[in-house]
Amino acid sequence: MSADVMSDNLEERVFGAAVGTLELFGIYLGSRLGLYEVLDERRRTGRGPVTYGEFAAEAGIHPRYAREWLEQQAVADMLAVDDPAADAEARRYHLPAAHAGVLVDQEAADHLAPLARMVVGIAGVLDEVADAYRTGGGVPYARYGEDFRHGQGGINRPAFTTALVEEWLPAAEDVTERLRTSGGRVADLGCGHGWAAIALASAFPRAEVWGLDADPESVEDARANAEARQARVRFVTADASAVAAHGPFDLILVLEALHDMAQPVKALAAARDALAEGGSVIVADEAVAERFTAPGGDLERMMYGWSISACLPSVMAEGPGHAIGTVIREDTVRELAAEAGFGAVEVLPVDAGFFRLYRMTR
Q: Full-prediction pTM beyond 0.70?
């Protein structure tokens, strides 16, 4: 490929990235202000398309902002407009049913709107990230704020509430059988908003389920989510290495959290020590390529994007450690497990989307 062609492609990509980022801001506003919910409610109740004036009144926003947001969403093909040639005051907009999962339904498999909140959360601390690059320090996870925290919880929610119990755990049949028959005890390390722990408590009512996370705000969010769903889960603000003090556990989960740990070997060793006889640790982390290649595919590009702006800076803030970053490859997981004393590591035979699932046993 000639240098001129590569330059043209890069020009197109950068322009497209700018368009995409701005459209994420539109999604952020729609999600944060409940605008999509207003449109989805009209769709579900058969009230039909809406003018910007009607929409402004229903959504509780200023009419001029309502008009501009609706027009932008229609131009971006997020929303549909009945007659684009009509006068602005007469145009009617609606949310296509096919877009409801991506933009509104928080447990739909294709729900990607939370990505917008994550991007906005990162944008708010980019000055601090730049300083960390110069000093070698980091940016504590808490500094990324509510937007990033809720975005991360939201983007994981569909998989953690549905795929985890319906597809992932059944790939380890003896684990699900043990939880179903004897109940047992389960711990979710780095539990975040608690969706996985809540799903397990609902799916296996005889089990005792714990969730541990070092971030106090995440734990409070998890408790509120569990209370709203009347799920019996015990959430604790604690580092993952504290799990051994609360064991033994028949199953310990580390879901998209291992790469964010400054001391992953210490955490895995504690998890191993906390296992009951015949217990398992199941890790879900990024399904990146086996080895570094450049240029990379979209998944690899996204994971490195999270890494340079959020995951690596947040773990660097914790001081000396592994500082893995988001792009945690299979060989790295196996090395960490071996250092922690696990005798066996297998990749579970299940398509987990963005994730690769590992089962670790003594």
A: yes
